[in-house]
Write a structure and sequence with these properties.
Pfam families: Synaptobrevin. It is a single-pass type IV membrane protein. The chain is mainly α. It has one domain. It is 88% helix and 0% strand. It has four helices and no strands. The longest helix is centred in the middle third of the chain and has 86 residues.
Length: 130
Amino acid sequence: MYGNVVEAKSTLLPYSLSEFSNILNDRMKYFNTNGDYDKMNNVKGEIDQVKDIMVKRVLERGERIELLVDKTDHLSQSALTFQRRAKKVKRSFWWSNMRLAVILVFLLILLAYIGTSYFCGFDFDKCMNK
């Protein structure tokens, strides 16, 4: 139909490509109205949409990871603060238990003294003479 390119160059006259103009016009109509070409464009468009969605998801994931890192740092700091306060409370209870133990020991000694004083007298004369 088109022949050899070398031969065509030597025989071309101005405006002698009207046959090609008709073919070009037919191809333009075909691609403008053909559903297959539109399907290809639709597929390309869907691929672009999927790319956009994936990029958005990756960015959202990055933001969520940053948020998670911030929360982890805050939790770590809170845990250290909790640990320090727990040690202070533990020491406070230990000292209060020690005070209670000392008071109880003092009361037991006092009760023992009062008990022996009741039976032996306050100067222990009754128990020393026996």
